[in-house]
Amino acid sequence: MIERIDHVQLAMPPGQEDVARWFYGELLGIPETPKPGHLIGRGGCWFERGDVKVHLGVEREFRPARRAHPAFLVHDLPSVIDRLAAAGIELVDDEPLAGYQRVYTYDPFGNRLELMEPAHRR
What we know:
This protein has about 120 residues and is of the alpha/beta class. The protein has helices at about 15-25, 75-85, and strands at about 10, 30-35, 45-50, 50-60, 70-75, 90, 100-105, 110-120. The chain is globular, with a radius of gyration of 15 Å.
């Protein structure tokens, strides 16, 4: 039986690690964690804090995930939205989902991300 997701892996184009660090590390606040030594040569980078683990792997013929996406639970969604908007990151509202405030965005590579906050936190 599956117990939980260990991590999410998203694709990124080669040589864009600094852009990933800016978006996932600085804007979303997920610290970078060192990749295991035998994986460093593949490129990409990992971001982890507690149970939130986002691994970015390099794809030579990269195409972003425009529909498939991870959904992240966040604290204080309005401030996250403000921070992303101030950085020029696209934000997309969608149909309401009972019990949540949510918005979609795209990482700098075009991968779709959903940011959600339970409505009871508000």
